[in-house]
Design goal:
By secondary structure, the protein is of the alpha+beta class. The protein has helices spanning 2-13, 27-38, 89-94; strands at 23-26, 41-48, 51-57, 64-69, 74-81.
Length: 98
């Protein structure tokens, strides 16, 4: 599960840098944690070659999480941070707003 999704992520982003500390689990578990622990919701999403890249964030407290998921039900947290200020999937992929 993680291997195929990570391969797709690296081919999409063109870098292994995001995948160095990737955490993967069933999408339902990650989504529930982002919602219940951080009150993050999806701010932006993009389908890239069958992998859904999502920017989750809580604009009130500034936390954000960049995820990737596929149709198998796997989801990976690629990177996360604080000080959310409207970053999009494209910003993260281009490295203009990490």
């Amino acid at each position: 599960m993680k291997g195929l999704l990570l391969t797709a992520i690296i081919s999409i982003t063109g870098t292994a840098a995001l995948s160095q500390q990737v955490s993967c689990a069933p999408a339902f578990h990650i989504m529930m944690r982002l919602d219940s622990r951080y009150q993050e919701t999806i701010q932006d999403a993009r389908d890239q070659d069958g992998v859904i890249l999502e920017m989750w964030a809580n604009p009130e407290n500034g936390t954000w999480t960049f995820t990737a998921r596929d149709d198998s039900g796997a989801m990976c947290i690629l990177t996360h941070g604080k000080d959310y200020h409207g970053q999009t999937v494209t910003d993260i992929m281009l490295g203009t707003s990490i």
